[in-house]
What we know:
Layout: E1 5-11, E2 15-22, E3 28-36, E4 43-48, E5 55-60, H1 64-74, H2 76-79, E6 84-91, E7 102-103, H3 106-114, H4 123-136, E8 141-146, H5 165-169, H6 179-192, E9 200-206, E10 210-216, E11 219-223, H7 244-252, H8 258-267, H9 270-275, H10 281-286, H11 290-314, E12 319-323, H12 324-329, H13 331-338, H14 350-354, E13 366-369, H15 374-386
Helix pairs in contact: 1-4, 6-15, 11-13
Bound molecules: adenosine-5'-diphosphate.
Adenosine-5'-diphosphate (ADP) binds next to helix 10 and helix 12.
Amino acid sequence: MTSGVILTLNAGSSSIKFSLYAAGDEPEEQLRGEVEDIGDAQAYLIIEPDHGNKTRIAIGPADHAAALAAILDHAGDALGGRPVAGIGHRVVHGGTDYAAPVRLDDATIDYLTTLEPLAPLHQPHNLAAVRAARAAFPDAIQVACFDTAFHRAHPWVNDTFALPREWYDRGVRRYGFHGLSYEFISGELARIAPDLRHGRVVIAHLGNGASMCAVRDGRSVASTMGFTALDGLPMGTRSGQLDPGVLLYMMDHEKMTSAEIANLLYKQSGLKGLSGISNDMRELEASDRPEAAEAIEYFVFRIRRELGALAAVLGGLDGLVFTGGIGEHSAHIRRKVCEGMEWLGIEIDDAGNAGNATDLGTAATRVMVIPTDEERVIARAVNAALNG
Length: 388
Ligand code: ADP
């Protein structure tokens, strides 16, 4: 059993989220935080010990390597002189090959680099952090954990698009994302709701990014995200499902470039685009403007529609789990999603819902609120690698 420290990294274009765990039977969280505004004139390190008060420190301009150095400079107390024995990376795309975490070596990194066109807004930044961490810790074990991995056992019919076959072989598939969150929730269900272990469960991960996943026997059988993390539900700034004809219209008629369309679909759409107010659900719930109510209405409408579709894929429903920032905290959204869903066995207790209680269901289908913890899934994978 190793006594070292596990570092987890979740790197985006302008931020790196991190956490430190003590390795052991079950990794024990010491600290978590984030470097934000990477690439700007001034980056900031935010440290959050024990989910407590946050400290925000200006660290000057930083790339991913400098951000990592700043994290290590300031995390000295949490390290307590113990070496960083393993580093776990959130890597959005594992392609068709990886259905589980993988130890990172030159060949693996080369393969993951070839997947960059499949996730151009995430994968290059994930791999920048991998390279920085390998340079800073040449002796530590490095492990990649993939958002696609949990979905790799999808049946073919949910993995394909109705394009000519060669596109499937060329990797144009429905990969599905948020897999680390779904894996965590499935583990929690096995622990706190073992009656659902072999059941038909829909997990709704509703955060800035949002998707839903149908799980049976603890495995993903369908999800709302597809080839990229754009599909499915509307999100903070992402459009969600869109008729592909819209893209043709934008290109041919509006003469928009792919970069302009990408910016529109990833950054200007979703709750932000529909409301014209904010991508933040708290602000929309607090607003009395009709556009805010309409953005919420569309968000809820799509969740309910997907819930029906995923329940049909599963052939019924035994459990519905809410997670992610909105799923865990917004009683309003949960209430709206569950209204009139008696036909799916869904009824919820208002007092429990108002208090974000774990168990809300009062009818046949269990309805639960379970906080997700993607970092812990990564830390566990590194811990397992360290323990051989
Ligand atoms: P990310 O996908 O970036 O990890 P989160 O899972 O933290 O995001 O979710 C962020 C979303 O959760 C934001 O839209 C935020 O407004 C929403 N949220 C957080 N707390 C509440 C709350 N109490 N009520 C409504 N929405 C909330």
